[in-house]
Amino acid sequence: PPYEKYQTLLNKLVAKDPDERFQSAGELREALERPSRVEEGPSTSATVAVTPSQIGTGSQAAAVAAAPEPAAPARKLPLIPLVAVAALLAVAAVVAVVAMNRSGPGPAAGDNLTTDQRIRVQELLQAASTFTKLSNYEQAEVNLIKVLTEFDCRNQEARRGLQGINPSRAQEIIAACQ
């Protein structure tokens, strides 16, 4: 993998023995600038070669006794997947913040309504719904047009309701709103 060149650096960063780690931030910075030149600490593993003639002789025992115990293999850190996950989380956070602060395609007139005006819009929409159920489409249309022309031309509920009753009038109001 392309990040193998950093493995020596990572091994030195997570070394068990503090003397094998970087001794200062400046030393780490230099190593990051030249990752291929990072020096690895003293090795605690050794390979012992034993020939068939040494088997059963004292020279084999001496060779094994002189060899230090092998160190546990260094755990390779999956650097690229961690960076990718962090980047995805950052993008997701930005998207979530933007989505929460957005109320449709643009700023709606309804965003600037007072509490009393919002209550009036809800009353008009409820009345329009009731008139529609009673098949009094003329009065429903009057209430929906009032919401769209006097309070909030981007109100989706009023737009849908008027579109169902009088599509041409709905298109006029929507066009004027933009």
Description:
The structure is a single chain. By secondary structure, this protein is mainly α. The protein has 8 helices and no strands. Helix 5 packs antiparallel against helix 6 (137-151) and helix 7 runs antiparallel to helix 8. The longest helix has 22 residues, at 79-100. The chain is rod-shaped, with a radius of gyration of 37 Å. The relative contact order is 0.07.
- Strand-pairing-aware structural class: mainly alpha
CA-based shape: rod-shaped
Largest sheet: none
Order of helices and strands: HHHHHHHH
Mean pLDDT: 74
Content of β-strand: under 5%
Using only CA atoms, what is the Rg?
A: 37 Å
Number of strands: 0
The total of helices stands at 8
Assembly level: single chain
Q: Roughly what percent helix?
A: 55-70%
Distance separating the two termini = 54 Å
**Low-confidence blocks of residues:** 37-51, 54-67, 102-107
